[in-house]
Amino acid sequence: MSRILGLDYGTKTVGVAISDPLLLTAQELETITRQRPSALRHTLVRIKEICDEYQVEKIILGYPRNMDDSEGFRCEETLEFKKLLEKRVDIPIELLDERLTTMYADEILEESGVARKDRKKVIDQIAAAIILQDFLDNYNK
Q: Which CATH architecture describes the domain 3-139?
């Protein structure tokens, strides 16, 4: 069965989440870290490996619009990343508004009692799962 991948693209990390085979729920998978913002080769290779391993049929990529709905430099970087990823995987990539997901992920971790110093390791995965779950909830309506 195929699945959907959720990505939260950041300056130095990409949070990754995967759907269950029934496309009902999103689970955190991993955080891909890079040394420099421009060092994307390893990140792209790892995403391709995940897509192959889980038979991913679609990728949902968080699109960081500003609160006033404008598109800033983070949107430009995300679109550039999307283009690079499209060259690596033959899978449709959809953008999804991700405003406030990282803040919401931080609230979830705080409510769960995760220490602030430990949140950095998983916050991007949680944000990716929120992005993907938002898509799945609308997809299943």
A: 2-Layer Sandwich (3.30)
pLDDT tens per residue, range 35-66 = 887 889 999 999 999 999 999 999 999 999 88
Q: Where are the domains of the chain?
A: 3-139
Distant-in-sequence contacts of 15-20, Cβ < 8 A, 24+ apart: 15/123, 15/124, 15/125, 15/126, 15/127, 15/128, 15/129, 16/47, 16/50, 16/125, 16/128, 17/125, 17/128, 17/129, 17/131, 17/132, 17/133, 18/50, 18/54, 18/56, 18/132, 19/132, 19/136
Q: What pTM does this model have?
A: 0.91
